[in-house]
Design goal:
two-stranded antiparallel ribbon, 19% strand, 299 residues, globular, 30% helix, alpha/beta, single chain
Length: 299
Amino acid sequence: MNTTLGESNREFFNNFTTSSSRPPWMNELVAQIQSELLSLLPWLGIPAPLKAEETATRHGQEKQQVRLLDYACGAGEVSKTLLPSVDAALGIDISPGMVKAYNERAAEAGIKGEEMRAVRGDILSSSSSSSSSAVATTNEDGEETNFSGKEWWWFDVAVMSMALHHVASPSDAVKALVDRLRKGGKVVVVDWWLDSIVFHGDRKEGAGHHQHHHGPGHGHDEHHCGGEAGKMAGHAHNVVPGSEHTITRAGFGKEEMETMFKEAGCEGVEFREFRKETRLGDGGDAVMQRLFIIKGTKA
C-alpha cells in the first residue's frame, strides 16, 4: 500500500521520542544543535538567557511577550534550549508520539503549558489566512489542530531544525513559517549543508575530505527524486532502516537557501556553517557531515 510522505514521517518519528530510543549519533546531533543555538543567540537576534534573579523582574513587567514557534518540534529539544530567552514556546509536529514526549518533558521540568506546549498538526495543510477568529484546539486523542486562531500568528521567532529535508516542498515550508511571523520577526532553519556531503565515488569542493557511502537508495517512492537525495536515502537506510522513506533532499546549498528566504519575504538573510562536523551513523556506517544555520528577518 502506498503511503504519503506525511504518513511516512509520522510513523517513523513516533519511534524516536526519547534519548534511549535514539542511536548514539542522533543524541550527539541533538546536543550539537543545542550548543550551536546557544552560542549564536546574539547573532540570531534572540536575547541571551536571563539570570534567575532577572527572570522574575522581566516577567513582572508590562511588555509584549517574545513568542517562539518551533515547527517540526520533535520532543522539544530546541524549545527547551531557547525557552530561557523567550516568554513562550509553541511546538507543532506531525507525530503524535513526539507531541506527547514534548509535553511530558515540559511537565516533568515543571514548565507550565502556557510557557511551553506542543500540538499535533501541519501548518502546510492549514489555512494561510490570519483573518479567521477560530481558536486552535487539540485533544488527548491527537486530533490535528486548527491553526487559524490568533495564538498561531505573529510570532517573534520561528525555528525549523533538521526537518526541511523531510518535507515535499522546502520553499513552501519556509514561506509558511515567515507568514506566521510578525514584521521584523526572525525565521531560523538548521539542516544538512549540501556542500559538505560526499558520497562514495563523489568529490565535492569545499568538503575538505572524502567520505564513504554504501550504495544507492532502497525502495524510493514518488517523493524521492533520485540523485543525491536517493544516495542520502540509501545511506539513511543503512544507518536507520525505514528513514529512507522520509527524506526528500540530501541537503541544501547556501545560495539555494538564501534565495528561498528572500523569496519568502525575508531581508538580512545570513548563512553559517556549523563550527564542527557531525557524525551521521555509528560504527562502519558513520560518515562526517556538516550542518548549516540560516536566519532571516521578515520584511
